[in-house]
Description:
Number of helices: 7
Bound molecules: 5-O-phosphono-beta-D-ribofuranosylamine
CATH class of the largest domain: Alpha Beta
Shape: globular
Largest sheet: 7 strands, mixed
Order of helices and strands: EHEHEHEHEHEEHEEH
Amino acid sequence: MASRLRLGVLVSGRGSNLEAILGAIAAGRLAAETRVVVSDRADAPALTRARAAGVPVVILDPGSRPARLDARADQQLLEALRAHQVELVVLAGFMRILSTAVLEAVASPMINIHPSLLPAFPGLDAPRQALDYGAQVTGCTVHFVDPGAVDGGAIIAQRAVPVHAGDTRDQLADRILQEEHRLLVDVLGWFAARRVVRTGRRVHIRDQAGGSGSGMQAAGAAAGE
Ligand code: GRF
C-alpha cells in the first residue's frame, strides 16, 4: 500500500476546510497525514483546530505588506515545509499571495481552493461577486497554484452550486462552503492515490487501477509542471 500523503496546510482564518481534511483523515476516508499547519495570523481559529488534532503549527511573521509575505516569512514557510517533509501543499483560506520565488522553491505541488467556478470571480469575496453579477450558477474550484495571475493556476476539479432567488451573500457562501469541503477531500484522495496527472494546463484524473510505482510517476508529473 502506498504511504500516506504528507500534507502541509496553509491557513489564515476559520479553518473549516482544514477541519474537513482532519475529519476525513480521522474517519479513515483519506490516506493522508497533516504534517504541519502554517498560518500568517497567530489568532486564526484554524490553529485551534490544528492544535486540537495534535498537528504542529508554524506561525509566520508576515511583515508589513498586507497581501504578501516578506522575504523572511518566505524562508520561514519554505523551512517549515521542508522540515515536515511535505509532499503536497494545500492553501485552505490562506490570504496572502505567494511570491514567484516561493512557488519556484517549493519542491511539492501546491493547490488552492476557491469559492467560484474559475476563471469567473477570482480574488476576494467570490460569493458576493457572483451575487452582484447575477450569476445563477457558481461553485468551487481546486486548482494548482502557479506563478502569474491570482487564482489562475491549472484547474484540477470544480463543482457547481446553484444561486437561489433571494440568497444572501452568507447563505450562498455557506452552500458553496459545504461543497468545498467535499471537493477538497475528494481531490486530496486523488493525490493520495497518485491519480493526478498534469499536462500543461490540462489535468487528468487517471483510473484507480495501477500500482504505487506508476502512481508516483503521476504525482511527479504534477509536481514537475
Ligand atoms: C473558503 O471559502 C476558501 O474557498 C477560500 O477561503 C475560505 C476559507 O474558509 N479560499 P475556511 O478557513 O477553510 O473555513
